[in-house]
Amino acid sequence: MSAPDPTPPAGHPTRRRDLLGIADLGPDVAGGIDEVMELTDSFVEVSRRPIPKVPALRGKTVASLFFEDSTRTRLSFETAAKRLSADTMTFSVSTSSVKKGESLRDTVETIEAMGVDAIVVRHGSSGVPRQVARWADAAVINAGDGWHEHPTQALLDCYTIRQHRDSLAGAHVAIVGDVKHSRVARSNVAAFTALGARVTLVAPPTLLPPNLDGWPVEVSHDLDAVLGETDVCYLLRMQRERMTEALIPTLREYTATYGLTSRRADRLAKGALIMHPGPMNRGVEIAAEVADRPDAVIVDQVRNGVAVRMAVLFLLLGSGTEWGGDGA
Ligand code: CP
Q: pTM for the whole thing?
């Protein structure tokens, strides 16, 4: 992963921080993740209260700017903002003036002019949240950009794993499936390895990035060979909407070789976790009945996402300190 850019964007010499990728958690990424995890513990407790709301971000406004479909991330950020007593503003491309040809920059500047403190951005193109951060004074949070990053997904995944095994240090995580098109895989590799996990990417060569130089991972093309030695089996969705060519012979053959069937899930070590960022293609990368097993923590991932995003919003808008406490 590249180091965070220490240079503030032009025109914003004293601007607040953004969360565009895992590297933005600070020079000590593990410390930055720990900071989010500790705060998440508090917000998990808040979320369990009869009235799961605190006044931490009263007076702040969080805008959601989603140019791609989402169920979990969008609702999770909106719920998180509301539980922190922030006002929310939701932008839907399909009912916006983007349909009349308004540019991304004009859209961002229009939303900013209404007075927002944070903009949560999802876009199909890698790098759009960084571009938005150059234009906006508000804090920008990447809710998934192209194949690039999805940092809050990685943070909620780290939190979910730590709920079950205390630490990722020494854990063996197999990330299985369409790594090539996966922003989740990129953020998770950065976060998991920063916390000391060993990561193996399991996929056919056509579903791996063409160049893995600098990725701190092992690679396998044989799911059956790694199943018995994994602590976390992290399945990725086949992202057919991002495929411009046929990368697998058929879905049936993919499932036969890389799908987590019941037979394969039975071979996982005792205590191993089955994870998926969602949305799932039941019957493709994960058998329908496997997704509902007790060792599948997919619903926990979604539940934890709200508290993790509360922590991220609070750290960006509420505390005034830097990730990792570097005070820069
Ligand atoms: N995991 C995830 O990003 O899901 P959504 O696309 O539903 O937000």
A: 0.91
